[in-house]
Amino acid sequence: MTGRVAFNADFGTNRRIGSHECEVKDRTGGQGKNAPGVGFALPEVSVGPGEGKRSVRKEMDDIPAANPFIGRAVAHSALNLCRLDGVIRHAKELILADLPNDLTKVVYLASLRDCNTGHYFHPQISHQNDSTSASHALRLCHEEVFARLMAMPLSEYVTQLGGYICYAHADEARVIDTWKSLAAYRATVPVKASALDAEFFFGSVEAALIVLDARRLGTL
Known about the structure:
This protein is mainly alpha-helical.
C-alpha cells in the first residue's frame, strides 16, 4: 500500500444498463455497441498516512476558544431585558390601563418626566424598581403611545381631546383657552420624537382645539 488511491470508471461493454446508457444511445443514434466509447474518470486523490487526522486536528486547533466574558454579557443583557419588560407591564397595568385614550396617556406620561433631565419618576413604580429601570420603562411606554398617535386621523384627535377634558372633569372652555394660550401640549412629545412627528402632533391638537371650540360656540 502506497497510500495513493486512484479511481477510474469506463462506460464500456461491461457496464450496467441504465438510464445513462439510454442517454448515450440517444446521442449516438442508437448505434449500441458500435458507438464510440464514453469514458468518465474521477481525479486521483492522494492522502498520505495520518495526513487526514493531522489536517482535522490543525483545523480544530485553529478554532478560537469561546470568550466567557461575552457569554456573561449576553446573559446579563437578556436578564435586564426581562426585568425591563416586567416593569413595562407593571406600568401599563398600574397607571395606563385606566386612562381613557392615548392622548390622555401621552399627557400623563409627559407629566412624569423631569423637564431638566428627561428622567421619568412615578411614586410606586420608581420605588418598587430601581430608578433607572423605571425611567427607561416609562420612557418606552411614552414613545409607544406617541407612535400610535402618529397613525391617528384628525377626527380621532377631536374625539380623544374631548375624552381627555371629560376625564379631567375640567371646564371645556377653560381647557380650550388654556391649551391655545399656553400650548402646554408642546411639552408632551417624547424627547426622541422627530421634528416631523412633533409638528404633526402639534398641528393635529391645534386643529382639534379649533373644532371643539367651534362646536362649543355652535358655529360648526
